[in-house]
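lol ok so funny story. i was supposed to be doing the assay writeup but got distracted and ended up predicting the structure for this chain instead. priorities right. anyway since i did it might as well share w the group, maybe its usefull for someone
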Amino acid sequence: METNIKVLGWLYIVLGILGVLIGVTVLAILLGTGLITGDRDAMGILFVVGVIVCGIVTAVSAPGIVVGIGLLKFRQWARVLALILGFLNLPGFPLGTVLGIYTFVSLLTPDAEAAFARI
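and the output, tada:
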């Protein structure tokens, strides 16, 4: 069971980092598009939109990174937060759905409860 929890922790970390990278990529694409147009108004608007999108995507992805680190250290708060994030990930077909189901299967067993209780 400890292996399942560690795999789940790494999945949350990797998917969180991918989310942050996607946000930064969107920001770079929008900034590049603004520069290519050469229009000052377009550059300003695309910059603002890029920063907002990057900020939102980073804010949504950061809890997954924190939960992943907590799961690797078998922290009880990380188990609770992972269950909440697993529920919130369910509508995100296909990766979010798979991650949510794997979260429930891994963390809602008596063995998982025992693993978090003893550490």
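Helices lie at 2-37, 40-72, 76-89, 95-107, 110-118. The CA atoms of residues 80 and 107 lie 9 Å apart.
back to the writeup now i swear
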